[in-house]
Amino acid sequence: MTVTPPPGYGLYTQTFTVTGGAHKQVITAGFANVGAQTAFNCRVNLSNAFNGAGGLTEPSQYDSSLTQVQTYVLLNTGGVLTSDLSTVAAVGTATFNTPSPGTSIVILRRTAMAGRQYRGHIALPAGFIDETEVNEAGFLLPGTVTSIQTKASFTLGRMTTLLVPMVLLHSPPLSGPLPAPTAVTSLSVTNLVGSQRRRLRG
């Protein structure tokens, strides 16, 4: 995502690398800065929501071959862009036989609005599951979907509690005004895994 957040909003990113992999794998989330916090405080709160106990990207949820190498916030406060970066590495503590690095777990971002521009998704890297959790047709086992869904819903709620609720940030349209960021009302884990071909290219 290359969208610059409008005033009062920010963009949070988590960057992962896999041992021996050629590409970084990035998770992004737009957010509203409800508490008029600094970029540093936003990043800390967002990292707590995602990486803390019960969170979607808690290190115990991904394989030791996967490392979260940085977290970053870009924040717009009154038209002034500030940022904060942490390069403290978080290595996964789980032990999986992971699927191909081109595999991803797809989590849909839903809003109260209809239309394609009001939808989005998160793609978790393959290191978050064991290959036995995906059947030959590419579907996640029901128990795996439920487990990831619990963590996704927890993270979304935790973001709101910490005054950095998730939103969709919109790209400028070909004509007309830029739509205001849209609140994400729910995250929904799909049972069919996704494909990220660019992660396999050297």
Structure characteristics:
202 residues; alpha+beta; seven-stranded antiparallel beta sheet; four-stranded antiparallel beta sheet; 2 helices
Question: How would you describe this structure to a colleague?
Answer:
There is one protein chain. The chain has 202 residues and is of the alpha+beta class. The chain has one domain. The chain has two helices and eleven strands. Strands 1, 2, 3, 4, 5, 8 and 9 form a seven-stranded antiparallel β-sheet that branches. Strands 6, 7, 10 and 11 form a four-stranded antiparallel β-sheet that branches. A hairpin with a 2-residue loop joins strand 3 and strand 4. Helix 1 runs antiparallel to helix 2. The longest helix is centred in the C-terminal third of the chain and has 20 residues, at 142-161. The chain is globular, with a radius of gyration of 17 Å. 37% of the residues are buried. The mean pLDDT is 89.
Domains counted in the coordinates: how many?
A: 1
Percent range for helical residues?
10-25%
SSE succession: EEHEEEEEHEEEE
Task: Let me know the average pLDDT.
Answer: 89
Number of strands: 11
Q: What structural class do helix, strand and pairing data support?
A: alpha+beta
Proportion of beta-strand residues: 25-35%
How far is it from the N-terminal to the C-terminal residue, by CA? 21 Å
The helix count comes to 2
Uncertain parts: none
